[in-house]
Design a protein that fits this description.
9 strands, seven-stranded parallel beta sheet, 291 residues, alpha/beta, 11 helices, Rossmann fold, 14% strand
Length: 291
């Protein structure tokens, strides 16, 4: 892909899943990638599978601004600057507003919103210098609320509007900003939720088609790569997510609410009980290690 040749792309959440697979596709298209993640072992493994001349892996945490600034400094020193940013790092929590662990709720918001801010804040000077592009990863969840996922829903809606504001701020400096909205993608995040919670699986089954469909990581990677290459304002994976977005007001209408509430009264207490038994409100891989 000619317009990605030798472009430098910063990817957060690059150790596995969508971030790792997008990095592979970008390197294959001639780009150079800067991968960041808190999981140093997985990050090193992903980086080892890529062309060493075209990858820089930096273990860091998006909730720590100084850590992200150091990652960007290393990227500028190694590759000269940053052209494109994929703000991809994100997690989810389990459980109702009354049942979720408050610390986990805060961590979801911190990673999914503040982490995007830190990523952009750190990279923006270089991106402005190169008149680059930033793709912020939101979700179908930004406009299709699901009970038991309030932190994720709220954070993805929040980061969408962050990106909308950012676009207005940097347009005069030659920087473009896009937002990605994806349906359920076959990532570790979604697989973990399905494995941990039968209530989550039942909620998916009760959603109308196509909202209950899971899309492949490959399809998501294709959308992200095309979005980065084309500096797109919106990226929808699959394409029908765009139509859902246009009709988002209907998704929070009294009619839809009534249909969901019929099942929530049973499934949400079931989810909370499953969370209680797990002893955690998030995927095991997203747990903060004990001190």
């Amino acid at each position: 892909m000619k317009n990605l040749s030798d472009k430098v792309v910063l990817i957060t959440g690059g150790a596995r899943g969508i971030g790792a697979e997008t990095a592979k596709a970008l390197v294959a298209a001639g780009a150079r990638v800067v991968l960041t993640d808190v999981d140093e072992a997985a990050l090193s493994e992903t980086a080892a599978g890529l062309d060493a001349d075209r990858v820089l892996a930096v273990a860091c945490d998006v909730v720590d601004l100084a850590s992200m600034e150091d990652a960007v400094a290393q990227a500028v020193a190694r590759f000269g600057g940053i052209d494109l940013v994929l703000a991809n790092a994100g997690i989810a929590s389990y459980g109702s507003v009354l049942g979720v662990d408050p610390a986990t709720f805060r961590r979801v918001v911190d990673i999914n919103i503040t982490g995007v801010f830190h990523t952009v804040r750190a990279a923006l000077p270089s991106v402005i210098e190169r008149k680059g592009y930033i793709l912020v990863v939101s979700s179908l969840a930004a406009f299709t609320p699901v009970p038991g996922l309030a932190a994720y829903n709220a954070s993805k809606a929040g980061v969408e509007h962050f990106a909308n504001a950012l676009r207005l701020e940097v347009a005069h400096q030659g920087v473009e900003v896009g937002i990605a909205h994806m349906s359920w993608i076959d990532t570790p995040l979604v697989r973990d939720a399905k494995k941990d919670l039968s209530a989550f699986r039942k909620m998916l089954d009760l959603m109308p088609y196509p909202l209950n469909q899971t899309t492949s990581v490959d399809a998501c990677v294709d959308g992200f790569v095309k979005g980065l290459a084309g500096r797109k304002r919106r990226v929808f994976v699959p394409g029908w997510v765009g139509a859902i977005g246009k009709g988002r007001a209907l998704l929070v209408s009294p009619l839809v609410d009534r249909e969901m509430v019929k099942h929530t009264a049973t499934l949400l207490p079931q989810m909370d009980e499953e969370v209680r038994r797990l002893g955690r409100s998030t995927s095991a891989r997203n747990q903060v290690p004990a001190d």
